[in-house]
Structure formats: C-alpha cells, structure tokens
Specification:
Helix content is 0%, strand content 47%. It has no helices and 44 strands. Strands 25, 28, 29, 31, 32 and 33 form a six-stranded antiparallel sheet that branches. A hairpin with a 7-residue loop joins strand 18 and strand 19. The protein is rod-shaped, with a radius of gyration of 38 Å.
C-alpha cells in the first residue's frame, strides 16, 4: 500500500488516497479514498491480522475525520478490491480533536488473543493531561488499553512503535515537539513507563520518527532507533540500548548534512546484504545530494552479525632494527580477508586500498599497495605472521601496526600495536677465512648510519682498551691496523674492506697465528665496537 494523505481524491481537497500495488511486480491493483475534505486519509498505514483469521488487514489513519477526533479504518482484500470491514472504523474520543490514527504499528499477539494487537497514536489526546498524547492498543477492533505520559503538552504519539520480544512487549511513542524532543517507552503488558529519553539539543525534534528493533548488540534486549531531524541543524539518527543498566547506551549515532533533516524517517529495511540481520535506513528528505535543493537522500546501516569483539592486533616481540617482528591478529571472523599495514605515524591515514586507518606513513609495502601482507580466507579466528623490518627504518623510530578485516562489503578495524625500534649491536664478519697471500673481505654491519663516520679494523690477540689515534681499539696490544685510512660506511652503517692477508707483519710470519680482530665505528666522538675471533690464520 502507498499512501497519499494530501491527495485531492473523491472525498474532496486533502481527503487523501491509498493505492494498492502488487508486491510481486508493482502493478496497480486498487485505490481507496478518504470520505471527506481534510481527512488526510493515509497519514499512517499499517498491516495487521486484527481479527485473527490468518490474513493481514490494512489499517488506514484519517486524522481529520470526525472533526479532528481522527479515525482508523480497516480494510480487507476481497474479490480483487479493498473492502471496509464490518464495524471496521475506530474513532478517537468524541470532541477531543486528538488526531487518533496519526501513527500506528502492529504489536503482535502479546495477550495471546485470536488477533494481533495494533498500537495507534493520538498526539493531542488528553489521557495524561491536556495534549499529553496517548497510544491505544487494540485487537478485534476493540480498545484494550491506553499508554500515556503523565505530562501535559508533550503530544506523545506523533510517532509510535511496538515490538514483541519473547512474551514481553514494548510500546514507544515520540513527542518531538517538546524542547529537545522526547521518547516514552512502556511495558506492553503492564502499561508502566519503562524509560523516558530526551534529545540532546534544543529543537532537535528527537522522536520525530522511531522504530523498536530486535536485539542488535547481543545483550538479549531490544533496542530503539530514533530520528531527530532538527530543521535548523544537521539532523541525527540514533540506535539506543534503552534497557542497558545503569543508563541507556547509544550504540550508533548518525549525523546528516546541514538542514537535510536526517532522521525524519527511520525504518528497518529487511536484510539487504545477506547478513541475516535487518538493516536500518535513515532518511534525510531535505538533503541536497548534489543535483538540486531538497533532492533528499537516505543512508542504510548494517548492524553487526555476531557479538565477536573487534579484531585485536598484538606484537609478539619488540621491534628491533633490521629484524623480524611477529604479529598476531585475533577475533577474526571466519573466511575474512586481512589487510596488514605497518606505518611510522600513529595518525589517521587512507590506504591505497581506500581503508581509513589509525596509522599512516606506510612502509614494507607490496608493489602497488600499501599493505605488507594480504591474508585471504582466514580460518580459526586468528592469523600470525612475521614482518622483516627493513633496514631503512632506523633505531629510535616508532613503528605501528594495524589490520583491516574485510568480508564482502563489511570492514572491521583492528587495534593498533607498536613500539620504538630498538638498536642492534655492531656485527663483524670475515669471508673467506683468513689465509696468507689471499684476500678476505671484512664486513661491518650496524655501525653509525652516517657517511661522515669512519670504520677501522684492528688485529691483536687479547681484549683490552689500547688506543689508536684516540680511538679505543678494544684490544690490549693491537699489533696491526688493517686499514690505516679507515673505511666509510654507507647510509645504513655498513662498511667493507678487502684485505690481502700478508705472509708476515713486521717481519714475523703470521701463518698459524691465533688472532682477535676488532672493528670500531667512530662518529663525532662516539664509537661502536665489535669483534671477530679468536681465529687462526691459515
């Protein structure tokens, strides 16, 4: 059914009309008209099995009927047309001008009667005080009970929603014309007020539309979706766990654009994307979507499909210069893909893959991408990997790691872990083994990362602190300076020297001599010392 409450139909100006279309192919089947001028027939519509015959009827609100008392009319499909049920008209209190039928929704079979219950809003009813507003539950075309705030002038019932949760029922009514806007929630059975929720800012129109929904945060309790379109602001939509103790918790807050009135309509859409959970839509009818003023737009949000906490990334060891670092990601959903990133900045960044991350300045990137690893179809709930820190990342620099979990259109960002890159001691190696009258390459790694540094090699037989040109050689009595002019390291502190090993030094043969060699990286008065040996010269 499609409502057109402002239509000038058979009943006259603003009498209203409801069109019946096929749910299979959208073809037109029938139409129903309001009975009199100004009825606004179709201001609210809902389907419910009001008489318990197993077939849903169509309820249509006409708030202008009966002089503004309002009516709800119930129709059933018969013989290819919509027909008014026998005794199928329910009216607001006579002379009340309460706008009965302004909003309504099916509650379900709360009291286990033959028919389903329906809740109907009357925002100008006086049940709890002048213009307090009220919500009436009916079944079998009979009033059952009324829910009303004990506050005059709030006009509850501008919007209504109802839901069954097991054998418990909940009824909610919006009162958007209070200072900030208000939502009242009652126990469906006892009619006791469970919670009052108020908007955060003046003029927010909190409660302009609302929808009670099944549990979406896996605590076993229903939640409520509330629109606050604030015509002077950006408009907001909320998902609130109103039964949370000690206070209601906002699970989602969506903000629209200036004067777009996001939240004017909120609704469950059904499961659009195959997650088994119904999605939520927030409409912004006055939004400028780029093609003209008040073109309108809507956003669809998907609730989580499980209560698995967000992915957690942790380092298995401290990051060390030019060394492997272990990384483990847990709480990974089955068959998800994991994009793993490393960066030197803990500031927000956007990856080449379009992900919004909490880290940036990415390194160790796979060609054409910003991630250092893509793990596809992860099973077992976790993924462990190792990244070799590139030597281009010096010690003393902080590094950070984060993962993005992606399953189809769904993305979940992991926590961040990292640390400052620790230094490595200087390393010294000689190849091939020292042999007279052959050349060996002396290699120093992790010296000073500066091309203004100098690297020396000394040979002796014992550890000590003898000096050469003011440099501690690390030997007690060095008898040979292998490279008297020193060697210049590259930008990463690596240096090499090719040494033709002589048959003798100072006239003394060295074949068969056991020696200890040291390497010293010296820069700006600081030095780093390493050893090779003892080793016997061949």
């Amino acid at each position: 059914a499609v409502a057109a409450p402002c239509c000038t139909g058979l009943g006259g100006c603003f009498s209203g009309r409801v069109y019946i279309v096929s749910g299979i192919d959208g073809s037109f089947l029938d139409s129903i008209d309001g009975l009199g001028m100004g009825e606004l027939f179709g201001v609210a519509i809902a389907g419910t099995d009001v008489n318990g015959d197993g077939v849903s009827e169509l309820a249509v609100g006409a708030v202008g009927a009966a002089g503004g008392d309002g009516e709800v009319r119930f129709y059933q499909w018969s013989g290819g047309v919509m027909t008014l049920m026998a005794n199928g008209t329910m009216a607001g209190a006579a002379g009340s001008d309460e706008w009965f039928g302004f909003s309504m929704e099916n509650l379900g079979n709360l009291i286990l009667s033959a028919g389903h219950e329906m809740v109907i809003g009357a925002p100008y009813a006086d049940d709890g005080g002048v213009d307090s507003g009220s919500v009436t539950a009916i079944t079998n075309l009979t009033d059952l009970r009324s829910y009303a705030p004990s506050v005059a002038g709030v006009r509850a019932g501008y919007s209504v929603s109802a839901i069954m949760s097991g054998f418990q029922g909940y009824v909610a009514a919006g009162a958007p014309t209070t200072a900030n806007g208000t939502v009242f929630i009652w126990d469906g059975r006892t009619m006791a007020e469970i919670k009052r929720l108020d908007g955060a800012t003046a003029g927010a129109q909190f409660g302009y539309d609302l929808q009670l929904i099944p549990d979406r945060d896996f605590d076993g309790f229903v939640e409520i979706v509330v629109g606050a379109p604030n015509p002077a602001g950006k408009g907001k939509g909320y998902v609130i766990d109103f039964l949370e103790n000690p206070a209601p918790t906002t699970l989602l807050e969506v903000e629209g654009t200036l004067r777009g009135r996001l939240g004017a309509v909120v609704a469950e859409t059904g499961d659009i994307n195959g997650t088994t959970a119904s999605d939520l839509a927030f409409a912004a009818p006055d939004s400028n979507a780029g093609l003209g003023r008040r073109q309108g737009r809507f956003e669809v949000w998907t609730p989580p499909d499980s209560n698995l906490p967000p992915p957690v990334l942790e380092l298995l060891n401290d990051p060390v210069l030019d060394s492997p670092v272990g990384i483990k990601v847990t709480n990974v959903k089955p068959a998800a893909d994991l994009y793993l990133y490393a960066g030197t900045a803990h500031t927000p960044g956007t990856t080449a893959e379009g992900f919004q991350m909490d880290i940036s300045s990415y390194f160790a990137k796979v060609s054409g991408h910003d991630y250092f690893e893509l793990a596809t179809g992860v099973t077992g709930g976790s993924h462990t990997t190792v990244l070799q820190l590139p030597i281009t990342i010096p010690n003393g620099i902080p590094v950070y790691f984060q993962a993005m979990e992606k399953r189809g259109i769904f993305e979940r960002l992991s926590s961040v872990d990292g640390g400052v890159v620790l230094d490595r001691p200087i390393e010294f190696d000689i190849t091939p083994p020292l042999k007279i009258n052959t050349t060996s390459v002396l290699k120093t790694t992790y010296g000073h990362r500066s091309t203004s540094a100098i690297v020396y090699y000394f040979m002796g037989q014992n550890v000590g602190s003898a000096s050469h040109l003011g440099i501690n050689t690390g030997l007690s009595n060095p008898f040979h300076v292998v490279n008297p002019l020193g060697s210049v390291p590259d930008q990463y502190g690596n240096a090499t020297f090719s040494w033709p090993v002589p048959a003798s030094i100072g006239g003394t043969p060295i074949s068969g001599l056991t020696v200890l060699l040291s390497t010293v990286s010296w820069h700006a008065g600081n030095q780093r010392l390493g050893y090779f040996g003892p080793v016997t010269i061949l």
